[in-house]
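Annotators were shown the component list below and the corresponding predicted structure, then asked to write short factual statements about the assembly.
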Amino acid sequence: MRYLLEEMTWPEVREALESVKLAIIPLGAHEQHGPHLKESCDAVLAEEFAKRLAERLYPWALVTPRVSFGISLHHIHFPGTITLRPETLTQLLRDVVWSLHQHGLENFLIINSHTGNQSTLDVTCTSLTHEFGVNMYYAKTTAGAKDAIRKYVRSDLYGHSCEREVSEALYLAPHLVRQDHLEAGQIRPGHWRLLRPDQPVRGFYYYDEMTANGCIGDAPSASVEAGRAIVEEALDHLELSMRILLGLPDDSERRKPEGV
Amino acid sequence: MRYLLEEMTWPEVREALESVKLAIIPLGAHEQHGPHLKESCDAVLAEEFAKRLAERLYPWALVTPRVSFGISLHHIHFPGTITLRPETLTQLLRDVVWSLHQHGLENFLIINSHTGNQSTLDVTCTSLTHEFGVNMYYAKTTAGAKDAIRKYVRSDLYGHSCEREVSEALYLAPHLVRQDHLEAGQIRPGHWRLLRPDQPVRGFYYYDEMTANGCIGDAPSASVEAGRAIVEEALDHLELSMRILLGLPDDSERRKPEGV
Amino acid sequence: MRYLLEEMTWPEVREALESVKLAIIPLGAHEQHGPHLKESCDAVLAEEFAKRLAERLYPWALVTPRVSFGISLHHIHFPGTITLRPETLTQLLRDVVWSLHQHGLENFLIINSHTGNQSTLDVTCTSLTHEFGVNMYYAKTTAGAKDAIRKYVRSDLYGHSCEREVSEALYLAPHLVRQDHLEAGQIRPGHWRLLRPDQPVRGFYYYDEMTANGCIGDAPSASVEAGRAIVEEALDHLELSMRILLGLPDDSERRKPEGV
Amino acid sequence: MRYLLEEMTWPEVREALESVKLAIIPLGAHEQHGPHLKESCDAVLAEEFAKRLAERLYPWALVTPRVSFGISLHHIHFPGTITLRPETLTQLLRDVVWSLHQHGLENFLIINSHTGNQSTLDVTCTSLTHEFGVNMYYAKTTAGAKDAIRKYVRSDLYGHSCEREVSEALYLAPHLVRQDHLEAGQIRPGHWRLLRPDQPVRGFYYYDEMTANGCIGDAPSASVEAGRAIVEEALDHLELSMRILLGLPDDSERRKPEGV
Amino acid sequence: MRYLLEEMTWPEVREALESVKLAIIPLGAHEQHGPHLKESCDAVLAEEFAKRLAERLYPWALVTPRVSFGISLHHIHFPGTITLRPETLTQLLRDVVWSLHQHGLENFLIINSHTGNQSTLDVTCTSLTHEFGVNMYYAKTTAGAKDAIRKYVRSDLYGHSCEREVSEALYLAPHLVRQDHLEAGQIRPGHWRLLRPDQPVRGFYYYDEMTANGCIGDAPSASVEAGRAIVEEALDHLELSMRILLGLPDDSERRKPEGV
Amino acid sequence: MRYLLEEMTWPEVREALESVKLAIIPLGAHEQHGPHLKESCDAVLAEEFAKRLAERLYPWALVTPRVSFGISLHHIHFPGTITLRPETLTQLLRDVVWSLHQHGLENFLIINSHTGNQSTLDVTCTSLTHEFGVNMYYAKTTAGAKDAIRKYVRSDLYGHSCEREVSEALYLAPHLVRQDHLEAGQIRPGHWRLLRPDQPVRGFYYYDEMTANGCIGDAPSASVEAGRAIVEEALDHLELSMRILLGLPDDSERRKPEGV
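Structure shown to annotators:
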């Protein structure tokens, strides 16, 4: 496939760079995902999602090798979790961007599947814009699929190994799912409720303070249908945004958002 | 005042530490705020807000000297703006926390008035929890005042030198406001719309790409009444959260949130 | 006031930058000052002193927000003291200088009220001159007031919460002083005497090895008269030096030092 | 497979950790490999090799996610190459080791397929032994296959996209090879000959100074037979070394894991 | 000689460590010293001075290898000058101290011959005291020789390649001196006068702004007699201070080591 | 001597720089060398070797002050050993190279006598080539003397305080050798054998795991004759390589400098 750097030789990359304007960097995490998802879940989903986006943006985008590790200190009490320090992730992305900038690229989109990476990405994008003068973008894979999520996700508390994530996995990479171990989150009482994103105070807590089995939400209600709806809606939005940001030729079926 | 570190001698601090459980660190920014707010606006508002919160939490909280600089690279094209790099802010807060931890404190709440600092604070809190084993919290000053903001803030696009911020200033520190220069934001068209918090893609843009005068929203519609409503609602929520998080004795007028 | 960055809007800064050649950065510390001075003493005195210097240099100088923290590890055993590591202070000042350099400034004067910062400032000035090619200066607030200090300061050992510092506070910011708690230093015997600035060997010691109450010198003999004499003599010298260094127009009452 | 962290859930990791003594970290590079190998070659070969070694060491070893980037500055002039700075790779490995050390592991083997990483690994192992007190090992994948290399590799100059590497790829991951583009190295004259590992002087040179097509050696003479001989001889040596270093029971007692 | 680490084998060091309480680290600089002193002057003088001090403190002190580079950015415009950045010198000294602390030493005295290093040493000593809990001392070689300097040094401006330094060299290491090129400083007018240590403002300036030939003072008036007086007075003071700081028995009991 | 920076004044350096193309940086270590070599052995041998090489390359090369410390963590259990962390050595060399680059030099050869420094040098050379665009070379002093080593060195295990190193010392700096304490290595059994350079696995081990007296090989069989043969063969190779790399005129035209 002529848009995956891992699958190309250097003469093929040279040819692709004649049209490519955007490098897409898939970023995941290696962390526990309860009893029903493999620990590589985030890395695999980010990569699969990035491939589909790049396919839509062909021949203007390339996918780099995925970054398989992220910021997962809050999961470290569960066996197998590996975490980077934020500064390590920033420097790793900095070197990837520097390298591709040497080959002439000016636009970078980090496709991130793990919420715990978002703050570090915000910091990183500011720093790299400043250091290199390139255009840095990042997106949480399916955060833009508001309609489908409203339709298919019923849990109040969701976002990790929940019906949304399992549905995405069933659609994008079903080998990640242990269908015979699907469990709803075993939520624990605790102060973490006071530190959730919709609360006035934020702060660090370990995931095992919140859930005994490492999940939240209701994984058994996941479906491939929900996964397809969520992923494709998210891809629609991302594709459109990137076409406008990169000044790519219009795509007949899509409309420009108002006010841009 | 016996809860402001800047106003105390060391014997007074020694005495206060017999009851104090929480250090409140006010964090602002030094950056342009349009033609109608002084550049110290964020730092002053954070400090004033922190003082009121500490008063409510007396004798369990102390306010440290404010940190007057934040992450403001996006404002650097406007004269006078000063920005820290994210790692500088992290290290500065790290040293403040280290020092107070030497004096026996275990709980830290950063009261932040500048949205541009939030990601760095998230990263910082993870790092410092990890390094010192302390409890790190942070809060955007009035983000919790959802009802009052819904009532008083009419602009679609607000959050900087807008009616919300000017109202807060009119209530907390009216000397910050140039009443005779109140202007609505002079919004410019551009790609920044595609990178706002509610959009699928995030990324860095300079504030002057978005607004010609450095403001967004509608500052002329600000009022001290709105400021009082916003600030006091936010303080109510924060006080309650911190009382629970710190295990402080109950406050008769307040109820515990459900499920905690 | 049109020379205090904290008090200005960005259009006012833009206008001021038409004449301004110098940024004055007040630097203090947050540390114990015995039973008779608030812990913010150094930060407040640096800021007040910087304002008076800027007033004399108007319209060629601006005062930035003060840096309220310094190098105070030697005071950490006294409750409330907060210290930065030297590298943190260097990076903080680096970012302030970088930012103002973006706005066109080439000359920077750090007004420092805390002796414990002087070595870090020397290192910082070398580094920033090297990195940015700007002109870096620093001054210990009243070190230049040799005549007045000789006249008013009687203690052999002075320099912290002593009659000199309390006098300066009485003149510049009397609210810092607890008049009813003025105490002379309660000096302890110890090896610290062998490590004072006039000794052949230097080295680190904690302040509580030297003094039981955190003071040295004789605070009860302080007076506003002494403070005025010290501060104004120091300002005279600093103003003159800066006028020559910046190539400012002459000030009729002052003479150029010989040999320059 | 119960020895690949990427394929496991956290309860499965927990169970595996009851016997596991060794974490194997596959490390590659993303760099040009001439017209006949994909740029992911090193990362894929390291991962495949690591899996086979872990299978032999079951149930005492686990394979972590692969690190897909290495030290490739010397290849940066060829399109698509991505390089880390040495300190970035060290910090990345440091965080992986730290995390797994939290889960109780004390022995770490980095399986490295890219010669350009060896010096950084040496430095990293010294640093991490020092910081964590763990046992750090690293191995160039097939460097130990001296007999097979002597038998099958005829080129004087080999080691990158040569008959050895292509043979390994044909055996371990044939999809990496563009069979219809196999080319011998197009060697250029130059000072690089004076800086090869067998020379008295070492130093940095870019790979395009040495070869026009990015290869050295004679890729067309590669064969799956050679690959099998090289890889299996290397695995034999490594397995034996690790069994001794870890104090494992003799090979004869080993059972293949079920379902592998 | 049994007090110079460079001259000892490890069994000899082991034996010496039975009595040794202090490591003396000679620190110089590699920088221009005008037409009449070799560029290694500071490093050589620091080492010679340290040896004499260690001899006086036998068997309680050891001399480490000298650190031949210092902070010399202000001399960089003169050919041959080499400078460290302050953080490099700090880290280098940190590693030397860490290593010797592993061997059981708790007291460290840096004998420094170059004024430009003093601020970095102050910062370093604070940091290392903090990090390791050891006792850090530093001394400018002959700064304590106040009587002899008053007697022999006549220049108003002295301190680098002047009669004081040349005299010290004539006494300690005469091979450093080009007797046939002794020159007085060729002083240039300039703003540097306003930035000297006795002035109210400090700041960075290059040495070539001050002197055309790299010297100040009056080297031709140097003498071995002056050198002896200065060095021996300084040694007397330093020896006494260190004896008290280390709690050593009185001088009278001291015997000269055999074979020295 | 007009090719040793330590022995020159700045006017002499200025003159030398008219022809000099290469800076030679001697790098050693301060570490135990058994009972028969002083701990400064590596530093002294590197310096002596560098001087001889510079003499051969006169007037095209200069020798800088030696770096007396290296990477010696594996020797730290022997009294007196001092080690740098790898990043400290890199930064130190970086500053030396930066400084000399300011004086116009573009080629740098690090003459290293300590195997434990080689990996760090490889990393350093890559980094500095990248940062400064200079030509970085490094050489293990006598590694190129393959014939002489084959002839004179009989031990299977050699490389530290062995007959090779003692022979070099007898030829280059006989004062380093305690002739009356020459001992063969007292080798201990252990896992270190599995981690030697010719083994498939590499890894960190402490030297005292390998040898009880800190030596390997057979020091008593050393001779000045062997030393001469090894050193001169190595110098021949290095001189030739550097002449080609620097594009110097043929050896025959070379004249010995006057007064050397």
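Statements collected:
1. Helices of chain F lie at 10-16, 41-56, 86-102, 118-132, 146-152, 163-172, 224-246.
2. The radius of gyration of chain F is 18 Å.
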